[in-house]
Design a protein that fits this description.
Layout lengths: L6 H9 L11 H12 L50 E3 L3 E2 L20 E6 L12 H13 L8 E8 L12 H11 L4 E5 L1 H8 L5 H4 L4 E3 L2 E6 L2 H6 L4 H20 L4
Parallel strand pairs: 3-4, 3-5, 5-7
Antiparallel strand pairs: 1-4, 2-4, 6-7
Protein backbone atom coordinates (compact mmCIF):
# COMPACT_ATOMS: atom_id res chain seq x y z
CA UNK A 1 0.00 0.00 0.00
CA UNK A 2 1.43 3.28 -1.06
CA UNK A 3 0.94 6.51 0.77
CA UNK A 4 -0.51 9.41 -1.06
CA UNK A 5 1.59 12.18 0.56
CA UNK A 6 1.78 15.76 -0.59
CA UNK A 7 4.93 17.75 -0.79
CA UNK A 8 4.74 19.23 2.71
CA UNK A 9 4.18 15.85 4.30
CA UNK A 10 7.14 14.37 2.47
CA UNK A 11 9.37 17.20 3.66
CA UNK A 12 8.29 16.60 7.29
CA UNK A 13 9.09 12.90 7.05
CA UNK A 14 12.57 13.64 5.60
CA UNK A 15 13.21 15.95 8.52
CA UNK A 16 12.25 13.13 10.87
CA UNK A 17 14.74 10.73 9.23
CA UNK A 18 12.14 8.57 7.62
CA UNK A 19 13.20 7.35 4.14
CA UNK A 20 10.41 7.12 1.65
CA UNK A 21 10.38 4.79 -1.39
CA UNK A 22 8.90 6.02 -4.62
CA UNK A 23 6.29 3.85 -6.34
CA UNK A 24 7.35 1.91 -9.43
CA UNK A 25 6.61 3.68 -12.72
CA UNK A 26 3.99 2.41 -14.98
CA UNK A 27 4.85 -0.45 -17.28
CA UNK A 28 4.39 1.75 -20.41
CA UNK A 29 6.77 4.35 -19.07
CA UNK A 30 9.39 1.70 -18.30
CA UNK A 31 9.07 0.21 -21.77
CA UNK A 32 9.57 3.61 -23.36
CA UNK A 33 12.72 4.24 -21.32
CA UNK A 34 14.13 0.81 -22.18
CA UNK A 35 13.47 1.35 -25.87
CA UNK A 36 15.24 4.66 -25.71
CA UNK A 37 18.29 3.13 -24.07
CA UNK A 38 18.50 0.31 -26.58
CA UNK A 39 18.32 2.62 -29.63
CA UNK A 40 21.67 2.82 -31.53
CA UNK A 41 23.60 5.93 -30.74
CA UNK A 42 24.57 8.14 -33.71
CA UNK A 43 28.02 9.60 -33.52
CA UNK A 44 27.99 13.14 -34.83
CA UNK A 45 31.53 14.14 -35.73
CA UNK A 46 32.52 17.72 -36.12
CA UNK A 47 34.01 18.91 -39.46
CA UNK A 48 37.43 19.09 -37.83
CA UNK A 49 37.35 15.49 -36.63
CA UNK A 50 40.27 13.55 -38.21
CA UNK A 51 38.19 10.39 -38.31
CA UNK A 52 35.62 12.02 -40.52
CA UNK A 53 36.40 11.67 -44.20
CA UNK A 54 35.84 14.62 -46.45
CA UNK A 55 32.31 14.66 -47.77
CA UNK A 56 31.94 13.93 -51.42
CA UNK A 57 31.13 16.88 -53.61
CA UNK A 58 27.55 17.03 -54.65
CA UNK A 59 28.33 19.23 -57.68
CA UNK A 60 27.63 17.63 -61.00
CA UNK A 61 30.79 16.78 -62.93
CA UNK A 62 31.38 18.97 -65.96
CA UNK A 63 30.68 17.05 -69.12
CA UNK A 64 32.81 18.11 -72.05
CA UNK A 65 31.15 17.84 -75.44
CA UNK A 66 32.80 15.39 -77.79
CA UNK A 67 35.42 17.03 -79.93
CA UNK A 68 34.51 16.71 -83.58
CA UNK A 69 37.28 15.58 -85.82
CA UNK A 70 38.61 18.65 -87.57
CA UNK A 71 39.46 18.43 -91.27
CA UNK A 72 43.11 18.37 -92.12
CA UNK A 73 44.45 21.86 -92.84
CA UNK A 74 44.81 22.73 -96.45
CA UNK A 75 48.21 22.32 -97.94
CA UNK A 76 50.20 25.47 -97.54
CA UNK A 77 50.35 27.48 -100.69
CA UNK A 78 53.64 28.47 -102.24
CA UNK A 79 55.26 31.66 -101.04
CA UNK A 80 54.69 33.31 -104.38
CA UNK A 81 50.89 33.26 -104.45
CA UNK A 82 50.70 35.59 -107.45
CA UNK A 83 51.65 32.80 -109.81
CA UNK A 84 48.52 31.65 -111.59
CA UNK A 85 47.87 28.59 -113.66
CA UNK A 86 48.22 29.19 -117.37
CA UNK A 87 44.51 28.48 -117.63
CA UNK A 88 43.92 31.67 -115.61
CA UNK A 89 45.45 33.79 -118.37
CA UNK A 90 44.38 34.56 -121.89
CA UNK A 91 45.74 36.23 -125.00
CA UNK A 92 44.01 39.20 -126.56
CA UNK A 93 43.74 40.04 -130.22
CA UNK A 94 46.97 40.55 -132.12
CA UNK A 95 47.42 43.97 -133.68
CA UNK A 96 50.19 45.78 -135.49
CA UNK A 97 51.68 48.55 -133.39
CA UNK A 98 52.69 50.66 -136.38
CA UNK A 99 50.68 50.35 -139.56
CA UNK A 100 53.44 51.62 -141.86
CA UNK A 101 57.04 52.77 -141.61
CA UNK A 102 57.50 56.38 -140.70
CA UNK A 103 60.83 56.78 -142.52
CA UNK A 104 60.63 58.46 -145.90
CA UNK A 105 62.56 55.76 -147.71
CA UNK A 106 60.84 52.92 -145.87
CA UNK A 107 64.19 51.51 -144.75
CA UNK A 108 64.94 50.78 -141.13
CA UNK A 109 67.34 53.21 -139.50
CA UNK A 110 68.15 50.87 -136.63
CA UNK A 111 69.49 47.32 -137.11
CA UNK A 112 66.84 44.74 -136.33
CA UNK A 113 63.93 47.14 -136.82
CA UNK A 114 62.71 45.25 -139.89
CA UNK A 115 62.65 41.94 -138.03
CA UNK A 116 59.34 40.47 -136.98
CA UNK A 117 58.71 41.24 -133.33
CA UNK A 118 56.01 39.78 -131.11
CA UNK A 119 55.33 41.81 -127.98
CA UNK A 120 53.44 39.95 -125.27
CA UNK A 121 52.45 42.76 -122.91
CA UNK A 122 50.90 42.24 -119.51
CA UNK A 123 47.55 44.04 -119.46
CA UNK A 124 44.99 44.57 -116.67
CA UNK A 125 41.94 42.27 -116.85
CA UNK A 126 39.22 43.68 -119.04
CA UNK A 127 41.60 46.02 -120.88
CA UNK A 128 42.66 43.73 -123.72
CA UNK A 129 40.80 45.85 -126.25
CA UNK A 130 42.46 49.10 -125.16
CA UNK A 131 45.03 50.82 -127.36
CA UNK A 132 48.45 49.75 -126.01
CA UNK A 133 49.93 53.13 -127.01
CA UNK A 134 47.26 55.23 -125.26
CA UNK A 135 47.69 57.16 -122.04
CA UNK A 136 50.86 57.71 -120.05
CA UNK A 137 51.71 54.00 -120.09
CA UNK A 138 51.25 53.85 -123.85
CA UNK A 139 53.33 56.97 -124.36
CA UNK A 140 56.25 55.46 -122.46
CA UNK A 141 55.92 52.21 -124.41
CA UNK A 142 55.88 54.16 -127.67
CA UNK A 143 59.05 56.01 -126.69
CA UNK A 144 60.79 52.74 -125.87
CA UNK A 145 59.81 51.09 -129.15
CA UNK A 146 60.72 54.15 -131.18
CA UNK A 147 64.14 54.19 -129.54
CA UNK A 148 64.56 50.61 -130.79
CA UNK A 149 63.41 51.65 -134.28
CA UNK A 150 60.25 49.55 -134.29
CA UNK A 151 58.17 52.47 -135.51
CA UNK A 152 59.95 52.06 -138.83
CA UNK A 153 58.61 48.57 -139.30
CA UNK A 154 55.12 47.21 -139.78
CA UNK A 155 56.21 43.82 -138.46
CA UNK A 156 55.90 44.66 -134.76
CA UNK A 157 52.83 42.87 -133.43
CA UNK A 158 51.41 43.43 -129.96
CA UNK A 159 49.31 40.85 -128.12
CA UNK A 160 47.90 41.70 -124.67
CA UNK A 161 48.25 39.04 -121.98
CA UNK A 162 45.81 39.32 -119.10
CA UNK A 163 44.06 37.35 -116.42
CA UNK A 164 40.57 36.16 -117.10
CA UNK A 165 37.74 37.98 -115.40
CA UNK A 166 35.32 35.06 -115.71
CA UNK A 167 35.88 31.35 -114.99
CA UNK A 168 36.97 29.19 -117.87
CA UNK A 169 34.15 27.82 -119.98
CA UNK A 170 33.89 25.47 -122.95
CA UNK A 171 34.49 28.47 -125.20
CA UNK A 172 37.57 29.93 -123.48
CA UNK A 173 39.16 27.00 -121.66
CA UNK A 174 42.16 26.83 -123.98
CA UNK A 175 45.38 27.18 -122.05
CA UNK A 176 47.84 29.98 -122.64
CA UNK A 177 50.21 27.60 -124.42
CA UNK A 178 47.54 26.45 -126.84
CA UNK A 179 46.45 30.02 -127.59
CA UNK A 180 50.06 31.04 -128.22
CA UNK A 181 50.64 28.06 -130.50
CA UNK A 182 47.59 29.04 -132.53
CA UNK A 183 48.94 32.57 -132.87
CA UNK A 184 52.37 31.42 -134.03
CA UNK A 185 50.85 29.26 -136.76
CA UNK A 186 49.97 32.35 -138.78
CA UNK A 187 53.36 34.04 -138.67
CA UNK A 188 56.91 33.19 -137.76
CA UNK A 189 58.43 35.83 -135.51
CA UNK A 190 62.14 36.48 -135.09
CA UNK A 191 62.02 37.51 -131.45
CA UNK A 192 59.48 37.66 -128.65
CA UNK A 193 59.54 40.41 -126.05
CA UNK A 194 57.62 39.56 -122.87
CA UNK A 195 56.78 42.66 -120.84
CA UNK A 196 55.55 42.18 -117.27
CA UNK A 197 56.48 39.94 -114.34
CA UNK A 198 53.23 38.00 -113.98
CA UNK A 199 52.83 37.51 -117.71
CA UNK A 200 56.41 36.26 -117.97
CA UNK A 201 55.91 33.80 -115.12
CA UNK A 202 52.70 32.51 -116.68
CA UNK A 203 54.11 32.21 -120.19
CA UNK A 204 57.36 30.59 -119.09
CA UNK A 205 55.68 28.47 -116.38
CA UNK A 206 58.15 29.77 -113.82
CA UNK A 207 57.98 31.03 -110.25
CA UNK A 208 61.26 32.91 -110.42
CA UNK A 209 61.22 36.67 -109.89
CA UNK A 210 61.64 38.98 -112.84
CA UNK A 211 65.17 39.84 -111.77
CA UNK A 212 66.22 36.24 -112.46
CA UNK A 213 64.18 35.89 -115.64
CA UNK A 214 65.82 38.93 -117.17
CA UNK A 215 69.16 38.61 -118.96
CA UNK A 216 68.66 34.93 -119.76
CA UNK A 217 67.88 33.08 -122.95
CA UNK A 218 64.31 31.84 -123.16
CA UNK A 219 62.27 30.22 -125.88
CA UNK A 220 58.58 30.08 -126.62
CA UNK A 221 57.56 27.57 -129.29
CA UNK A 222 61.15 27.53 -130.55
CA UNK A 223 61.44 31.32 -130.80
CA UNK A 224 63.97 33.32 -128.77
CA UNK A 225 62.26 35.32 -126.03
CA UNK A 226 63.44 38.23 -123.87
CA UNK A 227 61.83 39.22 -120.57
CA UNK A 228 61.59 42.81 -119.32
CA UNK A 229 59.47 45.17 -117.24
CA UNK A 230 56.10 46.41 -118.43
CA UNK A 231 55.63 50.11 -119.07
CA UNK A 232 53.13 50.53 -116.22
CA UNK A 233 55.78 49.34 -113.76
CA UNK A 234 58.44 51.58 -115.26
CA UNK A 235 56.24 54.61 -114.65
CA UNK A 236 56.38 53.79 -110.93
CA UNK A 237 60.05 52.78 -110.89
CA UNK A 238 62.08 55.14 -113.06
CA UNK A 239 65.51 53.72 -112.06
CA UNK A 240 64.60 50.42 -113.79
CA UNK A 241 64.26 52.15 -117.16
CA UNK A 242 67.96 51.56 -117.78
CA UNK A 243 67.48 47.82 -117.19
CA UNK A 244 64.52 47.78 -119.55
CA UNK A 245 66.66 49.47 -122.20
CA UNK A 246 69.31 46.76 -121.77
CA UNK A 247 66.60 44.12 -122.32
CA UNK A 248 65.35 45.95 -125.40
CA UNK A 249 68.87 46.07 -126.82
CA UNK A 250 69.24 42.33 -126.19
CA UNK A 251 66.02 41.65 -128.11
CA UNK A 252 67.21 43.97 -130.86
CA UNK A 253 70.46 42.03 -131.13
CA UNK A 254 68.58 38.74 -131.41
CA UNK A 255 66.35 40.21 -134.11
CA UNK A 256 69.41 41.46 -136.01
CA UNK A 257 70.99 38.02 -135.86
CA UNK A 258 67.79 36.51 -137.20
CA UNK A 259 67.93 38.84 -140.22
CA UNK A 260 71.47 37.75 -140.97
CA UNK A 261 70.41 34.09 -141.11
CA UNK A 262 67.61 34.70 -143.62
CA UNK A 263 68.64 33.12 -146.96
CA UNK A 264 69.11 35.57 -149.83
Amino acid sequence: MSLDLDKRQRAMLREMGIRLWQPQPAVAEVAAVVAHLKAPKISVATPTSPALSAPESTAMPSIQPPIASMPAPETAVQANTTIQSSNGWSLGEARALYAKPTADNGQPAVPGAAARWLLLIETPPGATDADPLAGDVGKLLDNMLRAAGLHQSASAVCVPVSRRLAPATAENDASLEVALAELLKTEKFDVILIMGRLAAQALLQSTEPLGKLRGRAHQLAGIAAVVTYDAAYLLRSLPDKAKAWDDLCRAQHIAGQALLTIPA
